[in-house]
Amino acid sequence: MGKGRDNAVWTTVRPHLTFSLLDLLEEALHLGGPASGPEGIDSHLAVMPSLVVALTHKSAALENPALDHNERLEFLGDALLQARVSEALFMRFPERDEGYLTVARSALVNTDSLAAIAADLGIDRHLVLGQGERNSGGAKKRTILAGAFEAVVAAIWRDVGLQAAMSAIDRTVLSDLERLDVEVPLLDAKSQLQIHFAKAGLEAPRYSAEMTGPQHAPKFIAKVTLEGGTSFTGRGGSKKEAEQRAARAALDSLTAGETRA
Hints:
This protein has helices at residues 21-32, 41-47, 49-54, 58-63, 71-92, 98-108, 111-121, 131-135, 142-159, 162-171, 189-199, 239-256; strands at 8-10, 180-182, 206-212, 219-225, 231-236. The chain is mainly α. α1 packs antiparallel against α10 (162-171), α5 (71-92) crosses α9 and α5 packs across α10. The chain is globular, with a radius of gyration of 20 Å.
């Protein structure tokens, strides 16, 4: 899934979705043909076998090997989201270049955005988690929620069809596209670096981070690795701050001509 921070600027606060996962599934089945009609989530699970897998986290499968988990569906759903959102942005901003479109897509398809959509749909109430993950609040974790949403999109495609999956993306990720804009001059260092590499047709920078220090006063060290293997580090009081500083170091090096992209 896209991991970039949300660089979107909305004309007003983006509203929460006003429908549930059940509503989304009912719409999908309606588009899929005469198989519609289930009245609850259990009934949908009965007619959409991939949905069972989509809602099962890896932690549950580790405790019960008989269960399939959703990581493969997450991979497939990510590809579907990337394709649909890319097409929508291509049509929405006909005069914008690749770098702008890349940042706009990152704003729509990233962990924070997808987790918020999953929370609005109430996906957390239907997740199958391992006991340890559930006890640690796994149903509210951003990465788990975002991955589950991607898996649900893939499950709709597999069990109902492509049209239904695209409609689900339109109703959620793209529901408020007309109010999206991206202020390129105000973009942070990570976004500027992403645009730089997108324009050059190169692989996007990769980030990793580790926490040091005590839990009550954590410090983070982040590393950004560029295509070709060159890397830069940054430190900060949060993962976001450390990543921004690493990206700034990379940008400064590119500007100075010390690194080629």
